[in-house]
Amino acid sequence: MLSSRASTKLCVPKQLSRAVVPLLHQSTLGSPGFRVAALVSVHQHGTTRYFSTTPVTHLRDFFPAKETENIRQTLPAWPHHGYTEQEMLDVVPAHREPRTLGDWAAWKFMRFCRWGMDLFTGMEKEQSVDKKNPTTAVNSIKPLTESQWMIRFIFLESIAGVPGMVAGMLRHLHSLRRLKRDNGWIETLLEESYNERMHLLTFMKMCLFMKLMLIGAQGVYFNALFLSYLISPKITHRFVGYLEEEAVHTYTMCIKQIEEGHLPKWSDPNFTVPDLAVKYWQMPEGKRSMKDLILYIRADEACHRGVNHTLSNLDQREDPNPFVSEYKGGRSPPRPASKPEGYERAEVI
């Protein structure tokens, strides 16, 4: 789904536009039969950016039904644990100030990545927030459109699922080499990656697929994270913590703009989220609007924010994962969403 503004227009052949464009605003976007043209280009400020190279004549269903003789459906490996409505509403943008040189490097690199995302997704100067508080301020002169939000969501979630997989894979191999247990880190990291992938699959049900852009981002990002985690897991977790701060900030801005009426297509009572999302988050009847979906996803990002900042504070080789550990004296495990800056080692170990 791309913006229809004059400076950013969707290039779809006339013979397809009547069939494709109306679908972008229907409540049937989540249906399994939704098909879109795969070739999309964005014309912006006199330049052309191609998000896919697949011929336009090749229409594709991203999630075709896979029926077999005996299997009804494949259940998620990590069912979502769910949130109360109050837990989701309590999530706010927050920022952990860098305290070490490694923290500073991770933060600056995160800001560089954010600048790149703003540039390549067509964000205008008037749509940005206060540069002095880029991770907490949510007011902008001009709101984004539904199309712009969707581009940003897909780009963000396409790379957000990489760090957990890289870290989980490397810690798995490290555990095998050392012939020692990993103390619960692997499971949490892989579950985080799975959760981010569910975010992406949900948004892909509602949008055109920016294939080339995503492949390029993942190709560079995966290898960069792979090398980074080999060199310093602590700095890498801090970087991911800052990445999740940006995610919480992004979704909070979107919720605010929905509440202020700037995104009418998503405020339409007839708009429904994909069945994929309803099943994964177990969204109750009457709580299946776009705002409800973003609240669930923002809460997930808040958890990832707290988890990664906390993991960065721990001894990477010896400390157990506090979020899946059983504590003495009946104490409950820490709740990462309630601690935006992460728990210090002394608080959980």
TrEMBL record:
The organism's place on the tree of life at top rank? Eukaryota
- Membrane disposition: Multi-pass membrane protein
Cofactor mode of binding and number, as noted: Binds 2 iron ions per subunit.
- UniProt GO molecular function: alternative oxidase activity; metal ion binding
Q: Write out the transmembrane intervals.
A: 149-170, 208-231
UniProt keyword Iron present: yes
Enumerate the subcellular locations listed in this protein's record, separating them with semicolons. Answer: Mitochondrion inner membrane
Q: Which GO terms describe its cellular component?
A: mitochondrial inner membrane; respiratory chain complex
Keywords, in A-Z order: Electron transport, Iron, Membrane, Metal-binding, Mitochondrion, Mitochondrion inner membrane, Oxidoreductase, Respiratory chain, Transit peptide, Transmembrane, Transmembrane helix, Transport
Required co-factors? Fe cation
Q: Which GO terms describe its biological process?
A: alternative respiration
Primary enzyme class: oxidoreductase
Specify where it is mainly localized: mitochondrion
Residues holding Fe cation 1: E157, E196, H199, E301
Family listed: Belongs to the alternative oxidase family.
Q: What does this protein do?
A: Catalyzes cyanide-resistant oxygen consumption. May increase respiration when the cytochrome respiratory pathway is restricted, or in response to low temperatures.
Q: What is this protein called?
A: Alternative oxidase
Q: Give the species.
A: Monosporascus ibericus
Q: What is the lineage of its organism?
A: Eukaryota, Fungi, Dikarya, Ascomycota, Pezizomycotina
